[in-house]
Structure formats: C-alpha cells, structure tokens
Design brief:
heterodimer; A: alpha/beta; Rossmann fold; four-stranded antiparallel sheet; B: alpha+beta; six-stranded mixed barrel; two-stranded antiparallel ribbon; about 50% helix
C-alpha cells in the first residue's frame, strides 16, 4: 500500500464571488522511502497539495490517505496528533521559535508528545551530531545562520521519526552552496534511515536531487518522472 | 522546557511592553492596597472613637430603644443581678459602661437650652471615653449620686455660665411630670462634635436615674472590646447571659450607631467605585498586551499548530503568560503596597493644614492625621483578584490564538 495516496483531489478557494481552483482532480501515489518533489511555477498548486497531505488543509473533493489513515474519517484532534507523530514539516523561512534554543526547538515536537526531558535530550543530541550542528544546542535562532537554522528545522522534523517529511521550498532562503549541503544531508537521511521526503519547489537544485519529479501546472498533474538523483 | 518556561520567555519577548504592563499593574495594586489600608485605618480610628464615646462595640438595650430612643425604655441594672460582672468576666471584654440618657432642658439664670443628660460611671468611663480625654472625671464627678456635672463647651457659653456655677436641669418623670435637679458645673467637655458640645450634660448615673424614679435605671450597657473583630463571636455569648423574658437585647455598634456605620459604608462605596475603575484599566492593559503579543505571533502559532500542538495547548500557553504577568505584578504590587502602607501607618497623612482638627464625620471627630492600618486579608484578596483578572483578561487573546488556522497563519507576515 502506498504511503501517500491522493485520489481525484480538488481544492477551490473562494475569491470574492469567484472560486479559484488551486488543485483539480489530482491522483497520486507516493511510496515509503521516496525522495520526491512537487515542482511547478508559482500558483501551480504545490503548496496546497503539501498542506493537504500535511493535514493542514482539507480538500474540496477527493480523498487523502497517509500512512493508512483516511483524513476524512479523523477529527481535528486526531489530525493534530497525527501531524505530531507521523509528519515532519520543514518550511521555507525555517520558522523556529525565537525564544527557544536550537535544542529546545528541535525537541519541541517530542515535548508535545510528552517525552521526558532526559530521553528527548539524548535523541536530539544524536540528531545534532548526524546533522553536523553539534555544539549549537544552546544558541537561539537569531544567533544561527540560515543554513544552521534549517538544519535545526530538519532536526525538529525528523526527531519524532515521522512517516513522511514535507518540505515547502526548503532552499528558497539559502545560498546555493548551503542549499546543496542541506539537500545532500536530506538525501542521506532518506537513504540511510528510509525517511520519505516530499518537497515542493521550483528550485532546479532541489529538482535535480529528487529521484521523482511530479510537475504541476494550474493545479493539474503535468508530468510524473522518475529520474537518477543528482 | 515546558509550558511555564516557554510562557516566561514569551512574556519577555517585548521587554518594554511587558515592563510597562507590570509597572501599571503593580502600581494599581499598590494604590488599591494603600488606599484601602488608609481607609481601613481611618475607619478603625473613627469606630474606636465612636464606640468609646457612643454605645460601645456591643450595647445592651431594652426593647426597641436602639431605634426609638424612647427614654421610657430604661431598665434596672441592679435587678439584673450580676449581669455587668458576668459580662466583664468574658474573654475579650475591656470595659462595661452603664449609661442613662435623658433629654431635657438646662436653665441658667439668663438662658435655657435643650440638653441630653447623660448618667455615667465616671471611674469606668474615665480611661475609655474620648470625650473625657483631658478631664479627670472621677475627680470632678466624685459620686454616682452627687450633683457634680460636666457640660459641653458651647452649652456652657450659651448658658453664660462658668465652672463652679449652678444650673437647673428639667426632664420628664415616669408619670409624665416634670422633674428638676440642681447641678453644679465641675468641668467642660470640648469634643469638636457639635451635638456633644451643644447639649451634653454628664452626671453620676444614679443622680440622673433618680429623675426617672429608679436610682439604678440605665438605658444602655456599653461594652468595649479588646479587639473589634471579637464582636460577632461575643454577641451570642452576651445574649446568653441576658435573663430570659427580660426584653433586653445585645446589638452591634453598626445597629446602635447606624449613622457612623452608614457614613463609613457610603465613603467606602465611593472608594470601591474608584478601585473598580483602576482594576478595569488594568484589565484593559492586560488584554491589550496579550492581544498584541498574540497578533505578533500569528505565523508562529500557525507553525506550532502545524507541527502538532493542539489549540488547547496554545490557549494554555497564552493563559500561562497572563498568569506569569499577573504573578510578577502581584509580587511587585504587594511589595509596593506594603511599603506604602508602612509609610501610611508610621507617618500617615497630615491634613491639619487643610481641615480643622475638630472636623466631624458620621457623628465622631475625624482625626486630621490619617493613619493606615494593616488589612493583610484584604491585601491578599485583592492580589489574588488581580491575578485572577489577568488570567480572565487572557481568555479572549487565548481563544483568538486557538482559533488560528495553521495553513492561513503560516502565510501571515
């Protein structure tokens, strides 16, 4: 069974008296362990699809099934718990909590799960080592570079060992060298740990690193290509 | 890093705004505490003065005398056996003062004036009654049945008399007949209370009682307590000592000196209104601070919800921030309130340059040097009220934070 299954998915937004179709009739299957990107120009519907897969938004039509869970059968509390345990998020602007240190930001989801301080510190210490940001645990986001902040965001996303990590334009605010490093890091996590990554991006660098490129245009599937990741 | 730590750090994100809010809340709490304690002290001073010169913390009357002041409602102290002594033996009783009040007419050879003839026990009254503050009453009124009298200062002037002069007092006897007594002025009472200075004539209680036809007659047994707080506890105990079927009742000073009690209530009600306005301003301040803080973090709240926090968790965080804001304000407010109260207790506010020393309020002399008294129960109560108010004020901002849709919030700039 696919990890992510979108069946005839549509999403329309009201705009005044009109309705704007962000996604139209999208059917898609993503398997566990994939390193895929939703590509397309601005307004193609990739962030909308990512939000729906991440249970942050609901489709107007169609069904979503992630990790064996049909979202239409879940209430808001169950969806929040599902996001907490089974989905990792990486955002374009890192979105770390400024009053927390790097370690506290990374362990935030584990804290929300009710894990003990000792246990989560141990997990985060290991992840910081893997991501090459050991020694930065006590720094606040403002004291970190963009690349370092995004690594902390990755740590936060993978800490609860989610079924899938959803990354919305993760390299958009980074220089190409830092972006390259981060993509390699995520690819390594994908290969070594089997973590599934689904990106939304129009950055050629991200597209080049993906092993599957799902192109959207005007909310419709334009192409779905498997490729040799760069 | 739990909710409390996160909330504490959030509170200090905008240091200046938080400090302004804390200063406003602390200062308001200080104002309310200090002014309440000042009123508490002034009222206590007035009540103390009032009960000593008036009807005591607790008074025993016959029938409806407390309301009607019908001078026929006297009662015989001696017939009640050892009632006076038994009351005096109760814990917390400072003094038991038998008194008789007879309205009448004082006449000198040149003038006549309406008076209140008050029969007292000068030995018992001397240390208690503030009207006798600068007078050695037992030396002037030597016996309970003598003709020695103390008169109000204005009455003395109006009757055109001097100390040592004689004058005649006429009252109504038990059968409705007029009864007159010749008295000699031994001293002058200058209280500052118009009614007292205009009409008071004090004599030994048996001399006054003789005019009723019963030498042991009294209208009032005024009971002074060591501590006014004992009043509610002692009224039932004293009531139990009253002979069954005697028609005697023990009443509190609030009933027997309703004018004073009502004046205090009215004065405090206007203060409470001012306190309410202060508290309202504080509440608006807290709501404003928290709402601004929430609105600035819409995007962040969206992210927190996206990564799995429940709306309840966000609500709890905002409410914890308000709780911390309230707690810090409560702490500093109490320190400032205690310092202000300490100053007002020790130094007070001296109004002698602005008001006369003999200003009257609610039938007692108002001391122009106002001093506070510690009302720690109220200080604690108002502190907790401010804390509770902070949390209540956070309900709307907290609800607003919890209603955020994560996908929309993350697009917010």
């Amino acid at each position: 069974m696919s990890l992510i299954s979108l069946n005839n998915l549509s999403k329309t937004y009201p705009l005044g008296s009109q309705k704007i179709a962000a996604v139209q009739g999208l059917t898609l299957e993503i398997q566990a362990g994939e390193f895929a990107v939703l590509a397309g120009p601005s307004g193609s519907g990739k962030t909308t699809v990512l939000n729906i897969v991440g249970a942050l938004d609901t489709p107007t039509e169609g069904s979503v099934n992630v990790d064996g869970n049909d979202y239409s059968e879940m209430n808001p509390k169950e969806l929040a718990d599902f996001r907490l345990r089974r989905i990792g998020f990486i955002f374009q602007s890192y979105n770390l909590i400024p009053v927390l240190t790097a370690a506290e930001n990374a362990e935030f989801t584990l804290m929300l799960q009710g894990m003990s301080t000792l246990k989560r510190r141990k997990i985060i210490s290991g992840i910081f080592g893997e991501l090459g940001i050991e020694g930065l645990e006590d720094r606040r986001p403002n004291d970190l570079s963009g690349g370092q902040q995004q690594r902390v965001a990755i740590a936060r996303a993978i800490a609860p060992q989610p079924a899938v990590v959803l990354a919305d334009e993760p390299t958009a605010n980074l220089d190409s060298s830092t972006a390259e490093d981060l993509l390699q890091l995520m690819r390594r996590l994908n290969q070594e740990k089997g973590t599934t990554f689904l990106f939304s991006s129009h950055d050629p660098l991200v597209i080049a690193h993906a092993e599957r490129v799902i192109s959207l245009r005007d909310g419709r599937l334009e192409s779905d290509i498997q490729q040799e990741a760069g | 890093m739990e909710t409390l730590t996160l909330a504490w750090r959030n509170v200090w994100r905008n240091r200046r705004r938080t400090l302004i809010t804390i200063v406003a809340m602390s200062f308001s709490l200080m104002l309310v505490q200090a002014f309440h304690n000042l009123s508490f002290g002034v009222y206590a001073q007035m009540v103390d003065s009032g009960v000593r010169s008036g009807s005591g913390h607790i008074a025993i009357y016959r029938g409806d005398y407390v309301n009607s002041r019908d001078d026929r409602l006297f009662w015989n102290l001696k017939k009640m056996g050892v009632l006076e002594q038994r009351i005096a033996q109760l814990n917390g009783i400072k003094a038991v003062l038998p008194r008789l009040y007879l309205p009448g007419l004082a006449q000198s050879s040149r003038e006549s004036r309406g008076i209140m003839l008050t029969g007292i026990d000068p030995v018992a009254e001397n240390a208690i009654n503030p009207l006798l503050k600068n007078i050695n009453a037992p030396a002037l009124i030597k016996t309970l049945d003598g003709r020695d009298a103390l008169v109000g200062s204005r009455l003395l002037t109006e009757l055109k008399l001097k100390i040592g002069n004689k004058f005649v007092v006429t009252t109504q006897g038990p059968e409705g007949q007029l009864v007159s007594e010749l008295l000699r002025i031994r001293g002058v009472v200058k209280s500052g209370i118009r009614e007292v200075d205009n009409s008071l004539v004090m004599v030994g209680r048996q001399r006054a009682a003789a005019m009723t036809g019963q030498p042991e007659a009294i209208h009032e047994l005024a009971i002074i307590l060591d501590n006014p707080d004992l009043e509610k506890k002692l009224i039932p105990l004293i009531s139990e000592l009253l002979p069954a079927g005697s028609d005697l009742k023990a009443v509190s000073w609030e009933q027997s000196m309703a004018n004073l009690a009502n004046a205090i209530k009215l004065d405090y009600a206007s203060q409470k209104f001012i306190f309410l306005i202060i508290v309202l301003i504080v509440t608006i301040g807290v709501v404003n601070t928290l709402l601004m803080s929430v609105m600035e973090r819409i995007r962040e709240f969206g992210v927190i919800l996206a990564i799995g926090a429940t709306p309840g968790r966000l609500r709890a965080t905002v409410m914890t921030e308000a709780f911390l804001l309230g707690s810090v304000s409560m702490l500093f407010g109490n320190i400032l309130g205690a310092l202000a109260t300490w100053y007002l207790v020790e130094i007070g506010i001296d109004l002698r340059d602005f008001i006369p020393e003999t200003m009257e309020f609610g039938g007692v002399v108002f001391n122009p040097v106002m001093r506070a008294a510690w009302d720690t129960a109220y200080m604690l109560q108002i502190s907790l009220y401010v804390l509770l108010l902070s949390v209540v004020a956070s309900l709307y901002p907290a609800a607003k934070a919890a209603r955020i849709a994560p996908a929309v919030a993350m697009r917010h700039h």
